[in-house]
Amino acid sequence: MRMDKKETDGRDFLGTMPVKKLLWKMAVPSIVGVMAYNLYNLFDTLFISVGAGLDAVGGVSVSFPLFIFLSAVASTLGSGGASVMSRALGERDYERANLAAAQTFGMFYATAICVTILGLLFLDELLYAMGITEALLPYARDYMRIILLGAVTSTGFSNLIRAEGDGKYAMYIWVIPMVANVVLDILFIFGFHWGVRGAAAATVLSQGISIGMSIYFFYLSGKSILRLSWRHFIPDVRLLEEIIMTGLPSLVQMLGAGISIIVVNRFLKSYGNLPINVYGIVSKVNTFLIFPVTGLTQGLQPIIGYNKGAGKTDRVRETLKMALLAAAGYGAAVSLATIVFSGQMMCLFTKEAEAVGLGGHVLAIVNAGLAFNGVQYVWAAYFQASGKKYRALACALCNYVICFVPLVAVMHHVCGLEGIWYALPLSAMMAAGTAGVMGKEF
Q1: Dihedral, CA atoms, 71, 24, 372, 35, nearest 10 degrees?
Q2: DSSP-derived secondary structure letter, 160
Q3: Domain, as residue range, for 32
Q4: pLDDT at 67 > cutoff 80
Q5: Is it the case that residue 149 has pLDDT exceeding 60?
Q6: From the centroid of its chain, how far is CA 128?
Q7: What are phi and psi of 222, to 5 degrees?
Q8: Letter string b/e over residues 115-144, b meaning 16 or more CB atoms within 10 A of that residue's CB
Q9: What is the CA radius of gyration of the chain?
Q10: Burial class of residue 151 (count of CB atoms within 10 Å of its CB; 0-12, 13-18, 19+)
Q11: In the Cβ-directed half-sphere of 357, how many Cα atoms lie within 13 Å?
Q12: pLDDT at 6
């Protein structure tokens, strides 16, 4: 499919702009968008804690792997489709870019409907499998019923927008819905006193805003380089296979995070509700602190994909090197800051002295691995964006499954509760080292 010169030149900056400036241009909007999402997560946890109690936080946290699964489906298809799109745009193959986007849309909505049906049918069984206690079950059930009903709204396809080089609109599609979510949280939790149901309703409604913005970008705004027609939505098995296989590491990464939460919660269950509730807060804080690295990886993927498709290997190498240094430096700085201020961070979420004491201790331990998490994230993003599907998959598996699950089992057996906490940064170190070995020839 041919595009006019003006349209194609609009994306040429991905292959011509100086790498440092380009990485900054693409990463900053992504970082802002991810920051908005993670601020929402923190506010959501804070509002639920204040408005519904610490057990409500625990119930939502234990059910969080189901939420992660929904996000993982969207991320898998979005990142896979974006990788195919970026490389196609670099090769000037616009028909393939159209097909990749349309196949991604269709597959996501079909999967989301299936997740809604199966999730609602087997909700209690899934929650028990994740280690829910009887005291926390009502909160988790109320929250996830609404989230599952809104599964079709769980992505605005910002990955595909970013793959076109429009980092700012991809940022808006995160920031605007998240601001709406915070406002709705306040209204529903404190105004209407709906508790966790209010938090879930606010999430689904704000995701609906994101979907509306996505439809506007691709079909109404004239900003998109894509020209989609109904024929692009006819299932293309070979292209779907490539999208899924390329995006599979994102699924493994996010499902792995969910598996690690389930594994930790099942070990913590024998110690009572307090460690579970504390870990729920710590995991949210940890996710927030890693957001600049997450945004960095989102910003570098279209750069790597486009230049890989255009055959500009030197630009790919320079982008990767700069991203690795930035991720490692940021992670080390934040780890040191967390050690100093961990207690104060926990005080933002709860005033219970026992929870603050344990949470501050756990937060300092867990976040000691942030530098290694960042390095592993960058390598995984590079493998995925450049189409190295199997290395990307192996990298993702190492982080939360291959390294973490055996390590936490052994360390819990040897060191008890403390062993669970220390397994998290140690597994991050092992995963980063493994990723570096896989990518050393580049």
Answers
A1: -40
A2: H
A3: 12-438
A4: no
A5: yes
A6: 24
A7: 80, 5
A8: bbeebeeebeebbeebbbbeebbebbbbbb
A9: 21
A10: buried
A11: 4
A12: 43
Alpha helices in 54-136 (DSSP H): 54-90, 94-121, 123-129
> In angstroms, rounded to a whole number, what is the distance separating the alpha carbons of residues 127 and 18?
49
| 74 vs 244: CA distance, rounded Å | 11
Which residue, chain included where needed, has tokens 């690690």? 260
Does 57 map to a domain? Answer: yes
Q: Provide the residue type at 161 as one letter.
A: I
Placement of tokens 């990955």 in the chain: 159
Classify residue 24: in a domain, yes or no.
yes
In a domain, 410, yes or no: yes
Query: CA angle, 53 as apex, 52 and 55 as ends, to 5°?
Result: 115
In a domain? residue 5:
no
DSSP conformation class of 218 = I
Tens digits of residue pLDDT in 371-391: 899 999 999 889 988 888 888
pLDDT band at residue 441 using 50, 70 and 90 as cut-offs? low
The rounded distance, in Å, linking the Cα atoms of 34 and 192 is 28
What are the Cα distances from residue 151, in Å, to 3, 19, 73, 119? 35, 37, 10, 10
pLDDT score for 7 = 47
**CB neighbourhood size of 419 (10 A):** 18
Computed over every residue of the chain, the mean pLDDT equals 87
For tokens 């170190």, what's the residue? Answer: 429
E strand or H helix at 371: helix 370-385
Domain count of the fold of the chain = 1
**Backbone CA torsion sign across 250, 178, 291, 313:** positive
| Distances, alpha carbon 197 to alpha carbons 180, 202, 283, 357, 402, in Å | 16, 9, 21, 29, 36
Q: Using one digit for the tens of pLDDT, what is the confidence trace for 260-299?
A: 888 888 888 888 888 888 888 888 788 778 888 988 998 8
Dihedral sign (CA 4, 5, 10, 15): positive
Q: 291-309 vs 19-52: helix axis angle to the nearest 10? A: 140
